[in-house]
């Protein structure tokens, strides 16, 4: 296994992504951490499948790198549980293991893993695969956060800017920085947002943060403070105030209401099946 990671220039595209790394071997865990840190990812760690399953529900990572052979609960069992749990089933799992038999690779993919990487691995390949899966996640989130836009250069600017934002809302750039990142100037980007969305770029950033907060409230066990930090609010109080102004209730009340809706829907489904 390589002792020092050599990473592609494209690694910068995954900066800010939150990766849950699951491995029980300290040396291999340390190498993965070094690779991801070099790409400026945020990293959480679990040492077995059971811990990974619990942490994934608590922190809602963007992607999971999962070993197979681990104590308490192996990676295959964790994949099965994560894929069967509504709060975690959309998180892509990349199995990264020395278990390289064809039957094992097929088994892992059938359980819900999106990719299977055999150790020893090349760091650049791991980053490239992570990047490809994160691009799919960004497209899915953009579909949720952006209306259909007409073809044209200004609409393309809005889509490109939105893609930058959803990668890491904790550190959303200023409108001036955002314009530079998508190859234009602040005045044109602002006009593109107003013409295509009826919002300023700043209003869109705030709205995107609050809509993303709803996803965390619904699909994770994160605390209100952790969600506030994750989406870029300075305090939980500021977040709660902005959420209430936008949706008419506090984050905690919204989460409780959604829980009641889920209970009602589940009861209806059970009656229909009876």
Describe the SSE topology.
Layout: E1 18-22, H1 26-38, E2 42-46, H2 49-59, E3 63-66, H3 75-84, E4 93-97, H4 102-110, E5 115-118, H5 123-145, H6 153-167, H7 175-181, H8 186-197, H9 201-219, H10 224-230, H11 236-247, H12 251-273
Parallel strand pairs: 1-2, 1-3, 3-4, 4-5
Helix pairs in contact: 2-3, 5-6, 6-8, 7-8, 9-12, 10-11
What's the quick description here?
This protein has helices at residues 26-38, 49-59, 75-84, 102-110, 123-145, 153-167, 175-181, 186-197, 201-219, 224-230, 236-247, 251-273, and strands at residues 18-22, 42-46, 63-66, 93-97, 115-118. The chain is α/β, with parallel strands linked by helices and 274 residues long.
Category from helices, strands and their pairing: alpha/beta
What distance lies between the first and last C-alpha atoms, to the nearest angstrom? 55 Å
- Largest sheet, strands/sense/barrel: 5 strands, parallel
What's the architecture of the largest domain in CATH terms? 3-Layer(aba) Sandwich
Spatial ordering of strands, largest sheet: 2-1-3-4-5
Unreliable stretches, pLDDT < 50, 5 or more residues?
1-11, 267-272
Order of helices and strands: EHEHEHEHEHHHHHHHH
Number of helices: 12
Tell me the overall shape.
globular
CATH fold-level assignment of the largest domain: Rossmann fold
What Rg, in angstroms, do the CA atoms define? 20 Å
- CATH class descriptor name of the largest domain: Alpha Beta
Q: Using DSSP, what is the number of strands?
A: 5
Query: If you average the pLDDT, what whole number results?
Result: 87
Within CATH, the superfamily of the largest domain carries the name Response regulator
Keywords: DNA-binding, Phosphoprotein, Transcription, Transcription regulation, Two-component regulatory system
InterPro entries: CheY-like_superfamily (IPR011006), Homeodomain-like_sf (IPR009057), HTH_AraC (IPR018060), HTH_AraC-typ_CS (IPR018062), Sig_transdc_resp-reg_receiver (IPR001789), Tscrpt_reg_AraC-type_HTH (IPR020449), WalR-like (IPR039420)
Organism: Telluria antibiotica
Protein name: Response regulator
């Amino acid at each position: 296994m390589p002792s020092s990671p050599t990473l592609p220039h494209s690694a910068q595209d995954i900066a800010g992504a939150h990766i849950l790394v699951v491995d029980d071997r300290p040396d291999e865990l340390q190498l993965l951490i070094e690779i991801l840190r070099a790409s400026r990812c945020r990293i959480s760690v679990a040492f077995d499948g059971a811990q990974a399953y619990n942490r994934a529900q608590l922190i809602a990572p963007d992607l999971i790198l999962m070993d197979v052979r681990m104590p308490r609960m192996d990676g295959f069992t964790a994949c099965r549980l994560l894929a069967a749990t509504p709060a975690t089933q959309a998180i892509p799992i990349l199995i990264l293991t020395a278990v390289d038999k064809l039957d094992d690779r097929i088994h892992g993919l059938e359980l819900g893993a999106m990719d299977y990487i055999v150790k020893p691995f090349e760091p650049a390949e791991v980053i490239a695969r992570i990047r490809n899966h994160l691009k799919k996640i960004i497209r899915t989130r953009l579909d949720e956060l952006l209306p259909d836009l007409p073809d044209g250069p200004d609409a393309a600017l809005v889509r490109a800017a939105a893609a930058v934002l959803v990668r890491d809302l904790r550190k959303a750039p200023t409108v001036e920085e955002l314009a530079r990142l998508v190859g234009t100037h602040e005045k044109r980007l602002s006009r593109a947002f107003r013409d295509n969305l009826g919002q300023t770029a700043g209003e869109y950033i705030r709205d995107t943060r609050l809509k993303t907060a709803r996803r965390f409230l619904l699909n994770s066990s994160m605390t209100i403070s952790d969600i506030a930090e994750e989406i870029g609010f300075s305090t939980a109080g500021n977040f709660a105030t902005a959420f209430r102004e936008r949706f008419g209730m506090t984050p905690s009340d919204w989460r409780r209401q959604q829980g009641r809706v889920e209970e009602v829907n589940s009861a209806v489904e059970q009656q229909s099946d009876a």
